[in-house]
Predict the structure.
Amino acid sequence: MKRFECMKRLGAKLENELVILSLGASVDEWYNAAPHMRAASLFQQQLGCVTPEAFGLAVGLPHRRVVSLDTDGGLMFNLGILATLANEQPRNLLVVVWDNECYQSIGGPPTHTAGRVNLAAVARGTGIEHAYLVEDLDAFEQHCIKGLAADTPYVIVAKVEPSVEPGIKRKHSDGREDKYIFVRHVEASEGIVIMGPSEHN
Amino acid sequence: MLESAVNKVIAGLKAAGVSVVCYLPDSLFKELYPALDRDPDIRTIRVTNEGEGAAICGGVFLSGKRAALIMENSGLRASIEPLARMGMGAGIPVIMLMSYRGDLGENNWWAIPHGMTMEPLLEAMRIPYRIVTEEGAIERAIKDAFSWSYAAYSHSAIVLSEGLVR
């Protein structure tokens, strides 16, 4: 299963959701697979932070669906977040883990999921009832539909090839610019102020 | 920790607009955590390590709500990686409230590193901080930390001294 194809299937189902995603090649792939979601996606370079940040966003905006696009290496950096999600039971959070069984962005040395580790089983073991290992594109799409409508945390561990979609446009912005774009999108779509003007005092 | 100091912390958090607190419990703040859990205006989230708590607080910032990370000062060491990436890399601020373990007067050998590492790490991370020693200064310190972090979009920390939390 190709990550880029999964992203196109997922992206086609998104409109008002907010997305936080992980580092590496998946950033550029998501930038191209779901161009309508660029401002609604926070592109981060933070191993272990993606799903916790998505959960924090989901806590702050309980009426809004939040999607975390995490990775096998990123999630294993902080498995504890699964336990926290299991106990907190957010009603508006879908977690997709792109599991390519390697640290792709540094050349591909294996992660532990290339061995005996099943992250969906880990998630279920923490108490997340809906956590699934998916290896087929149609099954992935069906789980996305269910996960986007679920009122308990939903985890899809998508087994994907360790390849990068060729010929895609690179994202040029850095973490700060991405944050401003994302925050301004949240402000506009929610009618709120997050980063407001100075006080003039 | 005296009930009056607990109340000052909660008053400070509310004055700063905080509605979410992430914490990993420690012994010095042990009276604070259940008081936060009981407060109807604050959602508490227990985390598995302080770095996870920092990242959750970062996500709350992006929602427009205000969060605080509450922990023993040893939690700073567990938080360094997410703090560096979120704060220095993206300008996503986290405001921390920590108990001062390992200050002069400490009588536990295992807590000595907490005191030795806290200020050098805060300085290395360019995190401005205030060590509060008087109960009457707690509320203002918390408000000030939020004011600064929401102007700088960078982390800040309030440390409650041993005298306030023992």
Remarks:
- The beta strands of chain B are 18-23, 43-46, 66-72, 95-99, 129-132, 156-160.
- The CA atoms of residues 20 and 106 of chain B lie 31 Å apart.
